[in-house]
Amino acid sequence: MSNPKRFLSGIQPTNIPHIGNYFGAIKNWVKSQDEGALEAFYFIADLHAITVRQDPLKFKEQIMDCYSLLAAAGLDPDLEKTAIFAQSHVPEHSELAWLLGCFTQFGELSRMTQFKEKSEKSKEGEVNVGLFSYPVLQAADILLYQANYVPVGKDQKQHLELARNIAARFNQAYNDDVFTMPEPYITQNTAKIMSLSDPLKKMSKSDSNPNSCVFLLDDKDTVIKKFKRAVTDSEARVEYRENDETKAGVNNLMSIYGAVTEKSFSDIQKEFDGRGYGDFKTAVGETVFDIIKPIQEKYYTLRSDRTYIDTRMKKGADKAAKAARPTLCKAREKIGFLHYII
Ligand code: AQP
């Protein structure tokens, strides 16, 4: 029997994950794990998170929070085909990133639209080299595991293309298939959840406005309050109108309600026909909380068990390193470094 195809994805421990991370990523990871067809590597992207300065004590907690939430949401670190680990626990990521950086053109990185956007928004002195070169670290994350599939949203397409270009360049330089060519993993019906206070922006963990974001650990009152305060419009009509910026807030709430209840937009529209936004917002808040409540309960049990977290994280890092090392060794050998003793 051939080896299962590999899937890789990550999450930055820049804060408590939110419902956008859950509906846009984690829920699909759990589904794909439960289907069991793929060997999957899920990492807490702590190396990526330091392109922005992190408070060291909070950062440690956030890494463990993030790990525990993934496990509480249903990723099972004890499964043979699942590895969940902290990226910095597998130093092969950093080493391969350096090697691949030497196969990446300065011009290629300068053209990355995410870099342009993020650096324009940053204050002077905040644009570090890590922010510029993080797509190379992303390429290393992917290529290290010979990943066949990587989920990519629109904003990450350019980065996957870069990873493919770097892989092709390296393979061509040494006339060998050192790296597998990664393909985008398209998940159907994946909701992109927007900010509750500015529905033209995506919901983001590091948004400075805490009301823009429903975190997976928010209590029921907070969840409902945040939805009650969500920006909508003065029309008082629960109706989905694509590409209509004035409806962006309602569109977003309908996407969230649809993601939770699996109801279509027209069914949601019928359900709330003639009722104001107040009722609708309460319903969205309550159904969202029903989904996150069991995750929270499991989370608090796991999070209080430090031995559980430490042993599983170590196990995940060992599993990941075992998969990563042969690739790194091969890349080192091709480049001409002296023999690498594992
Ligand atoms: N709003 C969102 N809607 C749907 N999916 C989302 N994801 C993130 N935000 C949304 C998906 O969650 C996974 C993990 O994301 P990440 O932590 O690696 O980075 P991010 O995309 O930059 O997420 P945030 O919340 O905006 O974090 P910060 O504020 O730290 O940059 C990814 O699969 C992502 O697509």
Strand percentage lies at 5-15%
Number of helices: 13
Distance between the termini: 28 Å
> What is the structural class?
mainly alpha
Task: Catalogue the ligands.
Answer: adenosine-5'-tetraphosphate
Instruction: Identify the strand order in the major beta sheet.
Output: 1-2-3
Helix and strand arrangement:
Layout (H helix, E strand, L loop, with lengths): L5 E6 L7 H17 L3 E6 L1 H4 L6 H18 L8 E5 L5 H10 L4 H5 L2 H9 L7 H16 L4 E3 L5 H17 L9 E3 L34 H9 L19 H14 L3 H7 L5 H27 L2 H30 L7
Parallel strand pairs: 1-2, 2-3, 4-5
Helix pairs in contact: 3-12, 4-7, 4-13, 7-8, 9-12, 10-12
The chain binds adenosine-5'-tetraphosphate.
Adenosine-5'-tetraphosphate binds next to β1 and α1.
Write structural notes for this entry.
By secondary structure, the chain is mainly alpha-helical. Helix content is 54%, strand content 7%. It has helices spanning 19-35, 46-49, 56-73, 92-101, 106-110, 113-121, 129-144, 157-173, 220-228, 248-261, 265-271, 277-303, 306-335; strands spanning 6-11, 39-44, 82-86, 149-151, 183-185. The strands form two sheets. A three-stranded parallel beta sheet has the order 1-2-3. The chain starts with 5 loop residues before the first strand and ends in a 7-residue tail after the last helix. The structure holds adenosine-5'-tetraphosphate (AQP).
